[in-house]
Amino acid sequence: MEEHYTKKLKFSFQPPPEAYTYCPTEEEFRDPLEFVRAIKSSIIPPSSWKPHFALDSNSFKFDTRIQALGELGVDARLELQFLENLEKYNSLRGVPFTRSCNVSKKPLNFFQLYREVNNNGGFSSVVKKKLWMRIGKKLGLNKTTCTSMSNQLRTAYERYILPFEKYKIPDDCLRDCSLKRSSETSPVTVCKDDIEKEKVDSYGFPPGSHYTLTTFKIKADNFKKNYFGTLAVPSSQVELEFWDIIKRRRAVSVEYGADLQTSKLGSGFPSARHMTDHLSHYDASHGWNLNNLPLHKNCVLSGFGSNISGMTVPWLYVGMCFATFCWHVEDHYTYSVNYLHKGDKKIWYGVPGHEGGNFETVARKLMPALFEEQPDLLCHLTTMIHPNVLMQQGIPVYRIEQNPGEFVITFPRAYHAGFNQGFNFAEAVNFTPADWIPWGRQCVSDYTAIGRHHVFSHDEMLCFIASKAVGLTPELAAYVAADLYTSIQLEKEARKKFLAYTNFPRDAKILQTASIEFEKIPDEKRTCKYCRCTCFLSAVVCISCDIYADCHVETISLWHAQSFARDRLVGGDSQGGCLSPSWKHVSCLTHLTDLCSCPLSMKFLLYRFTALLFIAQARDKLYSLTFSKDTPWKS
Q: Where is each JmjC domain found (predicted)?
């Protein structure tokens, strides 16, 4: 039936080179972590690996998300952001604005107009050189369709775009910049705070419909058949069509059942607790069963994060033709493994982990305005950058076709993206061998720089493992010990700067101190207000902000604050104190000055360990484990 699809596209696409695919023997396939350490990329299991699909297609129900493919490309994202900000700005200054403005019965694209004017030196240069006619032709207009084109383009630019380009933020307008609607001729000051308040939510995928696997397969097959005229389309043709849609921003929408939790819906792999007579115990207990892999004895998170959804608990993905996963790295730069249970192929594009920083540099170069508004843009899986564009910028990109029954491994900080060729069902989870730990440390630094929420506390994880040191492999003990040393040094430096800033304890500027068991506090209650890290070794809270959210500190006596802190923090828990759920402001030591404007006398210093002695002792214990045994992994 392949001959039925004969559409020819002018669009060209140069497929990236193929990543290597491995076919392990039965013996090599026995231990997942040992094999992953020896290889990279895609894995075709031995012929004996045929796990039973454990879900019922008629009773399995899930919700989808709608993906407007034409909005995922770089140009599309930039245009959407520009138009949203332009619309909000003009609305705030009381000027009616519509994106569907026409020039002589033809729609005017304000983003393209803005781009062309700036490509020709800016508004003043275009006016001086009388370039409006040239710009009109670039926009698809010409003299025969619009005799007053130049005047209309200039008027539109002056009315809507030029004030937006020129608006400034007065020094005295950083607070209380409320703006009332006013006439078009009234002088209006538009402040950045106003724009921020009016911003729409970050771009994302709206909810779709509710399906069973059976009904979604019918929808997916009908879509592909209607689009191509047949279900049997060469993989290369589907790939070419996909990138043509992205590049030309065509109005094609699909649905994707993504990030479905196995803890609620069930796994495609058999599990021991759901065993029946016809299910193989071999499949349920096998190391490559994704319910088991993240809990491998040599995985860092196997004990610490046994219930982190999507990281140690698998997620499911139900795809259809063109359903997309945009460029991203895994949370905390962990490894990931994806298994395609059944259905059509999944196409992957990947960038090596050591090129992650260069990838981000190129992405920021291509989309500076988007990153300015959303520093963690690449964490939201909403942007598709063409592989050929990346390759032209010197970024190595590799490609993999994943077939049913095959695994795809992504390595730490390896950016990846892709799409589905038709209906399919996949399952994925993260895992953390010992050599992931340095990548996790780097991720903490990178997350802090962009204000990205942490899924868990890296320092807490290390201390948890150190407290359970007996039974660790020499390799894991060595990695944990080395990174604990980093934790100690970073915390020492932070405490040193903190004490110097507060002149504590000589001036007693800090209200009080207390030892706190941070691990008993929900992560969201101990998140630094500024950098969004999850505090564990230390933190600072503001008593004033806890009592009065508006920080009217003059109404709080020092005695009142001390009594409140003692009752709520130190004496409120028989286990040694616990952060109240009502604490308003929390910060790490580094960002004390960004916490709030309340005086230091209203601050409370919290710490997990006194002088970090526990960590140092645990580190010594880990080193004794490391060097008291043979360590063949070093060679």
A: 282-448
Residue 178 CB-density burial (10 A; 0-12 exposed, 13-18 middle, 19+ buried):
exposed
Q: 96-127, pLDDT tens digit by residue?
A: 887 777 776 778 888 888 888 988 999 999 89
What is the Cα–Cα distance from 606 to 66, expressed in whole angstroms? 45
**Domain residue extents for the chain:** 2-72+205-446, 94-189, 457-617
Q: How many CB atoms neighbour CB 78 within 10 A?
A: 18
Chain segment 587-634, per-residue pLDDT in tens: 999 998 888 888 887 788 888 887 665 566 666 666 665 554 443 333
Helix residue spans in 330-436 (DSSP H): 356-366, 368-373, 387-392
Give Cβ neighbours of residue 30 (< 8 Å, ≥ 6 apart): 287
CA distance 414 to 124: 45
The angle that helices 235-248 and 213-228 make with each other, rounded to 10 degrees, is: 80
Assess whether the region 2-72+205-446 and the region 94-189 belong to the same CATH fold: no
Closest to 344 (Cα-Cα) out of 278, 292, 406: 406
3-state SS assignment for residue 368: helix
According to DSSP, the β-strands at 398-402 and 253-261 are: unpaired
Cα 549 from Cα 540, distance rounded (Å):
16
One CATH from 2.40.50.140, 1.10.3720.10, 3.30.420.40, 2.60.120.650 for 2-72+205-446: 2.60.120.650
- Cα–Cα distances (Å) from 93 to 123, 154, 173, in that order, read 21, 20, 15
Higher pLDDT, 142 or 628: 142
**621 within 8 A of 468, measured Cβ to Cβ:** no
By C-alpha distance, which of 476, 483, 477, 479 is closest to 460? 483
Separation CA 633–CA 635 (nearest Å): 6
Q: Give the whole-angstrom CA distance, residue 280 versus residue 286.
A: 10
Q: What's the Cα-to-Cα distance from 573 to each of 310, 463, 527, 556, rounded to whole Å?
A: 33, 22, 20, 24
Residues 6+ apart with CB under 8 A from 207: 63, 64, 65, 66
The predicted-structure confidence for 391-410, as pLDDT tens digits, reads as follows 999 999 999 999 999 999 99
Query: With 60 as the cut, is the pLDDT of residue 70 above it?
Result: yes
CA angle at 576 for the pair 571 and 579, rounded to the nearest 5°: 75
Please name the residue ranges forming H helices in 95-209: 110-119, 123-129, 132-138, 149-156, 162-166, 192-198
Residue 133, classified by CB atoms within 10 Å of its CB into exposed (0-12), middle (13-18) or buried (19+), is: middle
Bridge partners (DSSP) of residue 210 are: 63
* pLDDT value of position 371: 86
Q: Quick one: tokens of 145?
A: 């369709």
What would the mean pLDDT of 442-446 be, rounded to a whole number?
A: 96
Q: Count CA atoms within 13 Å of residue 55 on its CB side.
A: 23
Q: How far apart are CA 497 and CA 500, in angstroms?
A: 5
